[in-house]
Design goal:
By secondary structure, the protein is an all-beta fold. It is 0% helix and 52% strand. The protein has no helices and eleven strands. The strands form two sheets. Strands 2, 4, 5, 6, 9, 10 and 11 form a seven-stranded mixed sheet that branches. A four-stranded antiparallel sheet has the order 1-3-8-7, with no helix packed on it. It is globular, with a radius of gyration of 13 Å. The termini are far apart.
Length: 114
């Protein structure tokens, strides 16, 4: 069965950095696009970044130039490097893959606060 396990969240000061990881299993990882979403308290879940099976990336305007999505197909892992973090980046971050249906991880909390 498909499993996605996020890690790397935490508390960081504004301007700081974090790297999130999502370990995937149960499917042919290298054949699928992977996505990072986030959901702030009281708000809808929003798409943050996408990486195709071929490594093509795209980003939400709000994170462009600050966040970088990457993947390591040998490790079945997708990453989200987050730099210059802002308080408005505070949210639960989720890894996602669409394989006949949407699959989600459990999420990892990122809190940006001084």
């Amino acid at each position: 069965q498909v499993q996605l396990v996020e890690s790397g969240g935490g508390l960081v000061q504004p301007g700081g950095s974090l790297r999130l990881s999502c370990a995937a299993s149960g499917f042919t990882f290298g054949s699928y696009a992977m996505r990072w979403f986030r959901q702030a308290s009281g708000k809808e879940r929003e798409l943050v970044a996408v990486i195709s099976s071929g490594g093509i990336t795209s980003y939400a305007d709000s994170v462009k130039g600050r966040f970088t999505i990457s993947r390591d197909n040998a490790k079945n892992t997708v990453y989200l490097q987050m730099n210059s973090l802002k308080p408005e980046d505070t949210a639960v971050y989720y890894c996602n893959v669409v394989r006949s249906q949407n699959y989600w991880g459990q999420g990892t909390q990122v809190t940006v606060s001084s």
